[in-house]
Structures are given as C-alpha cells and as structure tokens.
Design brief:
Strand content: under 5%
Oligomer: single chain
Number of helices: 2
Largest sheet: none
Radius of gyration: 25 Å
Helix content: 55-70%
Structural class: mainly alpha
Order of helices and strands: HH
Shape: elongated
C-alpha cells in the first residue's frame, strides 16, 4: 500500500473511533439512560425475598 493510503485509513479510523466515543458518552449521560442507571444503582440495596439457610461451621446447611 502507498503511504498516503495508509495514513488516510488511519485518519478515518481515528474519526470513527472518536465518533463512537462521543456517541457512548452521549448515551451514558442522556436523560433516557439516567432512569436505568439509577435503578441499577439501587439493586444492591434491594431486599431479597429469598429465605436464608443457616450454615454451620463446616459449611453444611442445617436442616
């Protein structure tokens, strides 16, 4: 390949990468995604409805 062709391909890839990065940033900070991210942030604090099985010292469940 010619040097000019390789540099043109590199420039196009840089522009495409920049556009992808800006698109991801726009999506991450958009108001549409905010509700989904807030819901995901509350997941660790949610109460689980699953019963907890007591475990003895050997790691065996009592029952």
């Amino acid at each position: 390949m010619e040097i000019a062709t390789i540099n043109t391909i590199r420039a196009i890839l840089v522009v495409v990468g920049l556009l992808c990065f800006l698109g991801i940033c726009y999506w991450a900070y958009s108001k549409h995604a905010k509700a989904d991210f807030e819901e995901a942030a509350r997941l660790p604090l949610a109460d689980d409805d699953l019963p907890v099985d007591p475990v003895d010292k050997e790691g065996m469940t009592n029952g």
